[in-house]
Structure formats: structure tokens, C-alpha cells
């Protein structure tokens, strides 16, 4: 089902706030302290690979929790998986055992862990980002999904229209079905805006190896190869590894497209900020804030998914820095064609 209209005001500020917070939650599974005043809500947050501080996916999730706490009160306990992600069941179990409710798993890699843990805690509401729960038989879980292909389509349009060389690139973190949706949308958008454009595509790690989301050195190497081959804009869907893509762009005199958060605002380094042309927003922060608010009001419908797409403003492009202001008319036109159904964006490359 489609989400109700999301409250998007302040999204940029929330993402920036997340990047400024302490990132002491370790990769071994330690809990973080809440920065909010104590209240009735006890929120458990289990991060994806790399934990908080990635200036992207995980930080966006944290920003959503902090925004909810700012409105409703409460506190959050944060846990991060170990390097190989083998303790995901332990993380969800610990959060539920400690009385957190709701418990939010950030990333599809928690799917198997959720299927094992949620039935053991029927009075705890769970949510998982980027994973459908519709066919999992879990009455106490909600899937928070995003039409990443639609946002990426607009990113592809922007890259094609702004490219001077007619050559762009895509760096994916892990070669999974989800990240392939980013690739598929990006390629389709670029080809729609500029037929014949050259598009390099590479992944940092293979399916099952989630290190690709936390390997900026490898991300930089792949992006460097693309810039050396003639690309002038590279889009990453690689979590914390995107930092390396930005560094490669800065060194090559090229530009880059960020993902999930408004990375122009979160990257921190002015030299890297200057190369971020736009970011494909996947408003994890707003989706999580909305879920927590619904939970507090008793209106969560477990066992179902909430899809955040262009129509609900759940995905889109950031405009910080003004580098895509001159193509706003074209982007708006493609957006309306997608919403109306005139353009059907593919989900597979």
C-alpha cells in the first residue's frame, strides 16, 4: 500500500543533525546513550553495516528516531552489527529483551533475523527498512519500503543533462536486488534524457558480502577508474563507501551524486561538498519518524508494508548547492510522467 503524505519539512536539517551527533556506537554491538529527555517511548535501533556515522543510510535512520523523540519524548538504544553481520539475531533479541518497543531494523540484511526474533516477542512492534514483510507472516512487523528506482531515474536524468562528456558512472555497494533497483532507475533515466550516453557500472562487493557498504577505499578505486575512462559524473548507492566516490570526484575534477540523505549537507568537508551535484533522497528519516508516530498513536498495522515513492514524496532529489536548478523544468516533467504512469521505471538492470 502507499504511504500517506509524509511530513517532509526539516528533512535536510534532520540529516545534518544526525551527522553532528556522537558516533560512538561500536561495530561490536554496544548501545548508545539517548540525547533526548526520558519519556515513555523506548526505541530500539539496530543499524546496518557500518553503524552510525556513514553520513548516509544509517545516519538518516538515526535522524528519524531523533526527530520522533523530539516530538514525543523517549529515548533510543542503538546497536550495530559486527563486521560480518553474524550477530543480527542477537541485536534484535537484546533490544526486545531490554524492553524497547518499537524495535527498528535498518536494512534488508536483517530479514532472516527478524523472521526468527519477531515471533518470540508478539507484544513488541518491529519495523524493517528495505524489506517487505507482507509474505513473512509477522503480525507485529512493518516493512518500510522505498521506490529507489524512481528517485534514481531522476538522478540519471540529472546526470545525463549535466554531463559534458556524455559518459557517466554508477557505483553500487553490494550487488543485491535492492541496489540493482538504484542502478536500473539511474540507467533508465539517463538513457531517456540522452539516448546513447555511456554508463559505466560496477559493484564493490558481491551479494552476501555486505562489506561493500563500508569500504570507501574500494569505492574510490572504482570511481577513479570511471573518471579516468572519461566519465564526468558518478552516482553511488553504496552507503559509507560513497565517501570514496566523492574523494575520487574531487581529485578528478568531476562531480558525484549522493544517496539516501542530502549528502551535500552531511558530508562535512567543503572540498567534497563542492562536487556533490545532487543526492537521490530515500527519506528513511521521515519514514521512520512516521512509523514511530503511528506507533505512539496506536495506528500501526502490523504484517504490512508502507511504500514511499515519488507520489508520496518518499523519494526525490536534493537541490542543495543549486547545481541542478537550471534543469528543474525537465526534472519536474519526468517526475509527473512517472507519477501519472506515463513512464514505468524498471526495477532490474
UniProtKB/TrEMBL annotation:
Residue ranges of domain ABC transporter substrate-binding protein PnrA-like in the record: 48-347
Keyword Lipoprotein listed: yes
Bilayer topology annotation: Lipid-anchor
Keyword list, A-Z: Cell membrane, Lipoprotein, Membrane, Signal
Location, primary (coarse class): membrane
Protein name (Swiss-Prot/TrEMBL): ABC-type transport system substrate-binding protein
GO terms under cellular component: plasma membrane
Location within or outside the cell: Cell membrane
